[in-house]
Write a structure and sequence with these properties.
By secondary structure, the chain is an alpha+beta fold. The chain has 2 domains: 132 residues, Cytidine Deaminase, domain 2 (3-Layer(aba) Sandwich), CATH 3.40.140; 217 residues, no CATH class. Strands 2-1-3-4-5 form a 5-stranded mixed beta sheet, with helices on both faces. Helix 3 links the parallel strand 3 and strand 4. The longest helix has 19 residues.
């Protein structure tokens, strides 16, 4: 559970917003949603071009529309993060955007608690004399309560950078993927593999023989995946049928993975795919377990970094979808773009790119309900049948 942090003064509130967003935003509009005086969370969107009235109205409409979808929201507060200096500017930057946000909120019945701008040389309040001298940034000091929250690391794009992976691990994963590929293709190279490498590659293929079991172990909180598991899951994420099983299982549970795998196998034989199992792919359905989903994203980021770039489009597309599923459309768009740089025709990456460009987020991002499994609740690992 997130700690409750009280922010009474404006400067204290401005210190809190980056922690709600999980980053120190740049060139952004942040909107904090409230219900009965308590913050529910924060939304972030890129600033529009200041001289484009149509884009300003579109951004205001989009961000207030998102706020309205958050359960129980009755008020909002806006913060503009700008690279433009506030001193000697003549008027507050992005005033038209803030006015549009206030107007749109009023139309939708939302109270605007306050609106601020944070620039490189200070901060101001739009609703209380924005034409005065900016206040110093030093006033936006971290509240002692914020010491219990995770440290912020960079702007909204920083967390989309893949983590560093030791050369030895990347080499091992590449070798396992290459050797497993030779065994599957029954190529001449497979016959030339040394006994040890052949045995290691066969273990990877053994893991792939039961994809849901592999995917469940991959997101287990008990231990981090080893090179063999990373190679096996990477092998699957490069294949759309198995990749979709993984994503639906990580957003659901083992039962969901079993049901999706059976449905995918039947679909390949010409049978229709069950609509209930497909809905989560488009962001419809019950809210998933956030720690499980974030753990899947974190491990897929490591997996993508460990996978050779030529084979990385599938893992990056999985990262893109998982980031989108957690509400991180900025990161999702970055992963999707990287995947499309490698494979311009990658289907899932292009789908995520389009959804991010349209400002579409999953329904569950705006909900606070218990998790249920779209695969049902009667199956267990011991009762699975292939």
């Amino acid at each position: 559970m997130s700690p409750i942090v009280r922010a009474g003064a404006p400067a204290e509130f401005l210190a809190l917003v980056p922690h709600l967003l999980g980053c120190t935003p740049r060139s952004s509009l942040a909107l904090v949603t409230f219900a009965a005086g308590r913050s529910l969370g924060a939304l972030r969107i890129d600033l529009p071009a200041p001289d484009s009235d149509a884009e300003v109205e579109n951004v205001a409409s989009t961000v207030i529309g998102m706020a309205c979808k958050v359960s129980r929201t009755d008020a909002v507060a806006a913060v503009v993060y700008t690279d433009l200096p506030l001193r000697d500017a003549g008027s507050a930057p992005h005033r038209a955007l803030v006015d549009a946000v206030v107007a749109r909120a009023d139309i939708c019945g939302l109270r605007v608690i306050d609106a601020f701008a944070v620039g490189p040389d200070g901060w101001i309040g739009y609703l209380a004399g924005a034409d005065g001298e900016p206040r110093p940034l030093e006033e936006i000091a971290a509240d002692p309560d914020l010491t219990r929250t995770p440290e912020l690391d960079g702007d909204q794009y920083a967390a989309a950078t893949l983590p560093p992976v030791p050369t030895a691990e990347r080499t091992a994963v590449n070798r396992l993927l290459t050797d497993a590929g030779h065994l599957v293709a029954r190529s001449r190279e497979a016959k030339r593999l040394p006994a040890g490498r052949r045995a290691a590659a066969r273990l990877v293929l053994d893991d792939i023989a039961d994809p849901p079991a592999l995917f469940e172990a991959f997101v287990s909180p008990d231990e981090d995946p080893d090179d063999r598991a990373v190679a096996a899951v990477s092998f699957c994420l490069q294949r759309p049928l198995l990749r979709d099983v993984a994503l639906m299982q990580w957003i659901g549970d083992l039962t969901t993975g079993d049901a999706t795998y059976r449905a995918q196998t039947a679909h390949a034989a010409g049978h229709p795919f069950p609509a209930d199992l497909a809905r989560p792919m488009w962001g419809e359905g019950a809210r998933p377990d956030p720690p499980r989903l974030l753990r899947a994203l974190d491990r897929c980021r490591h997996l993508a970094a460990a996978t050779p770039r030529s084979r990385r489009a599938g893992p990056l597309a999985a990262c893109a979808w998982l980031a989108w599923a957690t509400g991180g459309s900025t990161h999702a768009a970055a992963y999707a773009a990287d995947a499309l740089d490698i494979d311009p025709d990658h289907g899932l990456a292009d789908i995520v790119r389009i959804m991010c460009a349209q400002g579409r987020l999953p329904e569950w991002v705006f909900e606070r309900e218990a998790v249920t499994s779209p695969g049902g609740t009667e199956s267990s690992r011991g009762s699975r049948a292939r």
